[in-house]
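[audit] Reproducing an earlier prediction to check determinism. Same input, same settings, fresh worker. If the tokens differ from the archived copy the diff job will pick it up downstream; this log only records the rerun itself.
[audit] input (166 residues):
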Amino acid sequence: MASQPKWEGKVSAKLQNATADQIWPLFTDFFNFHKWFPTLATCSGVHGTNGEPGCIRYCAGFSIPSDATSDHTVKPVAWSKERLVAVDHDDHVLSYEIVESNIGFKSYVSTVKIVPLGPDCQVGCVIDWSFTVEAVQGLVLDDLVKKYDVGLQRMSRIMEDCALGN
């Protein structure tokens, strides 16, 4: 059986006032992503230690639609279980994968990198969020990337406000 073509997407957000060192701990708090991502209703740990590779979180209630039910009457809440695959504290990079979901994502892997700005790394930062996933039936790659971009722009504002004590 041939595998589906892979989609790749990447979005970025520039934070003018928060440093990479201020934003990084918010991402490594893997079980509490709902605090920052506006469309997540819930996010909680289901396995392992928060922020450690191998831990798994359950996320539900985001803007990517769940798979349709067979009778097309009621759509369940969209959810996924995501495993933290790698964490590099020195370079501010983490990767995670979806291990189970009802949103039609197969072979999904995502990487977040927080890039410091300025000669002394104290002039803001950029959040780069990239993903690869098998083509998803019923979705268009450009629309999916736009959803990620909208989510990241909102999330980065919330994170920056938190980092600045607002």
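[audit] rerun output stored. Observation attached for the diff report: Strands lie at 6-15, 42-47, 56-60, 79-88, 93-101, 109-116, 125-134.
[audit] end
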